[in-house]
Amino acid sequence: MENTSPHPLPDHGSNTPERNLPRLILMVTAVALAIIGLLSLTAVLITAFLQGTVWPGFVAGAYVCLPVAFVLMILMVISGIRARRRA
């Protein structure tokens, strides 16, 4: 459907998103670490609920992956704010 009015429609940018590989890698890494951390935490809680011996790797995964994922997500927010201010 074409615009037949005498006033052109405003252009809000192109339809293709800007390709920013470092931000994409940062986002995928943050999500992957968050999933690994949550799965590790779930394994620790289920093992403790069943009164079993918790494997130290699950504890380390929960202790390390969740905070690192949180920091990476904060960096994503800061990066997004900086990108919007430049535009």
From TrEMBL:
Residues passing through the membrane, by range: 24-49, 55-78
Keyword annotations of the record: Membrane, Transmembrane, Transmembrane helix
Protein name, per record: Multidrug ABC transporter ATPase
Organism: Arthrobacter flavus
Lineage: Bacteria, Bacillati, Actinomycetota, Actinomycetes, Micrococcales
